[in-house]
Design a protein that fits this description.
- This protein is of the alpha+beta class and 119 residues long.
- Helices cover 39% and strands 29% of the residues.
- The chain has helices spanning 2-9, 52-61, 88-105, 108-117, and strands spanning 14-17, 25-29, 32-40, 43-49, 65-67, 76-81.
- A six-stranded antiparallel β-sheet has the order 1-2-3-4-6-5, covered by helices on one side.
- The longest helix has 18 residues, at 88-105.
- It is globular and about 40 Å long.
């Protein structure tokens, strides 16, 4: 799980948050969630924002990708990270896509503030 937390935290302006208690871990940028990480029976699940068309295609291609658990199922996928079903590169691409969707949805001033904080 730590490798994926670190990967998310390496994103510009990404911060950890625990708005629902000690679990799940929510990764945010500009106050908006881009990843939600939970452990269930020693299996990591990561919920990620996704373009609706891409989200549907990913679900059709891999049973480890399901509609977002307790999230808007049109815009979120929950990925079972079992070390077999999804390659690290595929998961990184999904995390990147989620982050980019959320980051791009932020206002210009919020993006500028995040960029300034990173200097």
């Amino acid at each position: 799980m730590e490798i994926w937390i670190d990967y998310c935290e390496d994103k510009l302006g990404a911060v950890r948050d625990y708005p629902f208690g000690p679990s799940p871990l929510v990764m945010k940028v500009g106050g908006k969630m881009f990843a939600l990480l939970t452990m269930d029976n020693n299996v990591l699940h990561i919920s990620l924002k996704c373009d609706p068309v891409i989200a549907e295609n990913l679900r059709e291609q891999n049973e480890a990708i399901q509609p977002g658990y307790h999230l808007n199922k049109k815009h979120w996928n929950t990925v079972r990270v079992d070390g077999v079903s999804i390659s690290d590169d595929e998961l990184k691409a999904m995390i990147d896509h989620s982050y980019e969707l959320v980051y791009k949805s932020l206002g210009r001033s919020a993006r500028a503030e995040i960029a300034e904080e990173q200097k």
